[in-house]
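Okay, any thoughts on this one?
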Amino acid sequence: MTITITAFENSPDGGKGMARDMRVRWALEEVEQPYDVRLLSFKALKEPAHLELQPFGQIPTYQEDELALFDSGAIVFHIADHHAGLLPKDDNARARAITWMFTAVSTMEPPMLEREVARFLEGDESWHDARLPLIDKRIRKRLGELSVKFGQSEWLEDTFTAGDLLMISVLLRTRSSGILAEFPNLLAYVERGEKRPAYQRAFAAQLAVFNAGLKG
C-alpha cells in the first residue's frame, strides 16, 4: 500500500518549507519511498475524520496499510527505522543519531517555536517587545552550545542521518530572524542540507502545493 501523508492545503509558511510535512517528505525522498499527499484545509483539521488520526488537529499524519502515525519526529523515526539510509548500521552510531533526533525536537526547537508564537500570535500584547529579546537570548544560547559541539564537522555523525534531517529542519526556523547567521558553521551546515537532492525534491513538492493554491 502506498504511503499517504497529510499536509496543508494552503500553508501559512508561504511556501518556505517550514510546515512539518516537509520533514516527512524529505525523509521519504532520502529513502526513495513513493508517497501520496492528502491536502487539508484548516477546517478539515478539526473534523472528526482527521482528529481520529491526529487528536491535536495538526499535520502531518502518516498512513501505510493498517498503520497510522502522527507527530513529525515520530514519523521520521519510523521511516528511518524501516528503510535503509537514515540510520547507521553500527549500534552505537545509530543510538547517537537517534539522540540527535530527540535533541532537535525537544531541546533545540521549543524556544524557536516560542519565538514564532510571540511574533505571530502575541504581537499586540503589551509585554511583547520586552519578551522577544529574552526568547532570542535563549535561542542564541542553544545555538551557541550546538555550534561548539558541532565545530567544523560536515554532519552530526560521520554520515548524514535522520538526526541531521531533523536538526536542519529545526535550525531553518532561525534563519529569517538573522540569528542563524551569527553561527557560520551552523549556517553552512543548514545550507549543505538544503543542497541534498532529496531535500530539493521535497521542497519543490511542497512549494508546488503553495503555488497551486495561489493560482486557485
Remarks:
- DSSP finds eight helices and four strands in the chain.
- Residues 37 and 211 are 16 Å apart (CA to CA).
- The helical segments are 21-30, 48-51, 72-82, 91-120, 128-150, 162-171, 184-195, 197-215.
